[in-house]
Amino acid sequence: MTLEQIRIFLCVAELSHVTRAAERLNLTQSAVSAAIAALERQYDVRLFDRIGRRIALTEAGHLLMGTATRLMREAEGARALLSNLSREPVGSLRIWASQTVTSYWLAPRMIEMHRRWPGIGMSLHPANTAEVAEAVASGLADLGLVEGDLPPSDLLRRKVGQDELLLILPRHHPLARKPRLDAADYRAMDWILREEGSGTRTATERHLRDMGLSPTDLRIVLQLPTNEAILGAIRAGNCVSMLSWRSLHFPCSRDFALRRIGWAPRPRRAFTALSDPRRFRTRAMTEFLDLLAPQPPGQPPNQPPRPT
After folding, report:
1. What is this structure's pTM?
2. Span 160-181, mean pLDDT?
C-alpha cells in the first residue's frame, strides 16, 4: 500500500466517480482505476461497488475511510514539517476559493506569490463559500478564501480584503433611473439570484432583510451558479440581480445600469481566509497570508465604480 494509492482512494470515495477523481488529481482515468484495482487485488477485498457509471463504497471501503484520512493528514503534516525546515518556503499550497474571489481577485496575488517563492506549488479549486469551509475542515484544502458570512466553527478566520454588491439592472429597465428604490419596487422586479451557499447569496439576503424582505417576497425567475450566467440572463431579459462590483470591470458592464445601494445600508462583505488550527501552519501558508493581508491604515481600499 502506498500513500499515492490512499490519496487516490480518498478522492474517488469523496466524488463517487473515477473520471471526476482523475480530473481533480490530474491523472488519467486508467491510472486511477489501476490504483484502486491494485489496492483491492493486493488485499483481496472490494472497496467499491460499480453501479452504472457511478461507484459506491462497500462496507470495507467505509471501514478504510477513517484510517486512510488520518494517514493522509499525518503524511501531509510530515511533509509540511520538512518543508518548513528549508531556508526558503517550498512545498505545496492547496487553495479552495469562492467564485468572486477566484474569478476577480485571487489570480494576481497567486502570480505575485509565485514570483516571490517559485518553490511553492499552488493549486486552486473553485467552489461556493459553504463548500470551501467544508474543504478546509475536512483537510482537502490547506487554505480557504471566501466572501460573506459563515456559521460559527473552529476554523481560524483572517480578513484579507473587502467587497460590495451592486444592484444590476438592464439599462432600459423602468426602475434603472429611479433615485431611491423601496420594498414595493423590489417586489415588482423579476430577480435572478445566486445559489444558496454562495457568499453572494448570503450578502443579498442580508440586504433584503435590511429592506424588510426575504427571498420569498421576490419574484425569483432563476437561481444560477455563476456570475457570468446571471449577467447573460440579465442581458437576455428584463431581470435584475445583485453581484459584486468586481464582476463588472469589463466592457460588458456597458450593457447594464449599476446601482450602488443608497437607500439602505450598503451590502459590504469581507474576503476571509480560512485555515484549520489543528493542522501545522507551514511557512508557505504564512507567506501567502501575509501577502493577502489588507492594505495598511491610511491607504484607500478598492472602491466600486460610480453608479450609472
Report:
1. 0.67
2. 93
